[in-house]
Structure formats: structure tokens, C-alpha cells
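Lecture 7 notes: from sequence to structure.

We start with a single chain of 177 residues. Read the sequence below before looking at the structure.
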Amino acid sequence: MGQSSEVIQHSRIHSLIDFENNSWNYQLISYYFDNDVVQEILKTPLFSQVVEDQLIWKLEKNGHYSVRSAYQLCMEVIADNSFLHRTGNWSSIWNLKVPPKVKNLLWRICRGCLPTRARLLDKGVNCPSTCVMCDENNYEDATHVLFDCTKARSVWQNCSLIYKVISVITRTNKGES
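Now the structure, written as C-alpha cells:
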């Protein structure tokens, strides 16, 4: 099968099509492929308007190969990165009409990757666990930094948003959306 595999390697799909009858060239296909593969090829519909073969890379919207998309494919196949995926409508954050810094901050808050002292301790960084902003001995996690800290509450108060923040926190704690 050395010679036939080289023929296949340098062939295009159109060489396997009988254009006069708009059908697959059964004799040629059965010569080059095993019966199981032949049956799969014959199941593939042919469209009369398609005249030219094109190489299409389905991982890019424009159909062109890119190293970036190939790398992403390899990472999905080789490495188990399922633990990195979080459900959610992340595009709604990235589509906001706000500066990129704000989008990034919102994304970090939602993903739980703000570098709070609690998170640093989880990563093995030796640091105190208490909030550096308030004088109380509060555990510095994202909720404390953004909402519970007296400094954060004064910022929300000065922005006249304290009541909206409190109502959202109350609804979230009750399990409402």
C-alpha cells in the first residue's frame, strides 16, 4: 500500500468525486480505502454547488490555521485543565462598555482570583491573615475587601451605592438572583 498511500497523500477530495453524476467515485474510493472507511465516505453528502476543495481550520472563525488555536487544541487534548473552567456568562463581562481595567477587575472578582491575604495564604505565601485597611482583626478575603471592610463600606457610602450593595448582598445570601 506504499504507492497508494502516497497517491492519497497528494490527492484532494475532488479526485474521489464523479462530477458528471454528482456522486462519489465508488471504484476509486474502494480501491484506496477499507470497507468501513468507504461506507463513511459514501454517507457524506455531496452538494452540486461545491466545486473547489478548500483546507479549513475549524478552530478559527476565518478558517485559517493559527498557532494559537493549535496550542489551545493541544492543551485540551493533552492537559486536563477542566479545573480551570468556571461556568458563567463571561462574555457579558468582556462586552461591557467600560475600561479594560474595570473588566479585568470584575473578571478577577467573579473568578475569585483577587490577591487577598486569604488567597495568598492558600498559595503558600507567608503573610498575616488580617485586613491591612481596617484596624479590626478581620480575615482578609474578597468579600471582606470589597464589602465588609469599614474602608470599603465608606467608599460605597461616598458613592451613594451602599444601599444597592447591601440589597444585592442580602439577596445573594438568601439564594436569590
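The radius of gyration is 29 Å. Keep this in mind for problem set 3.
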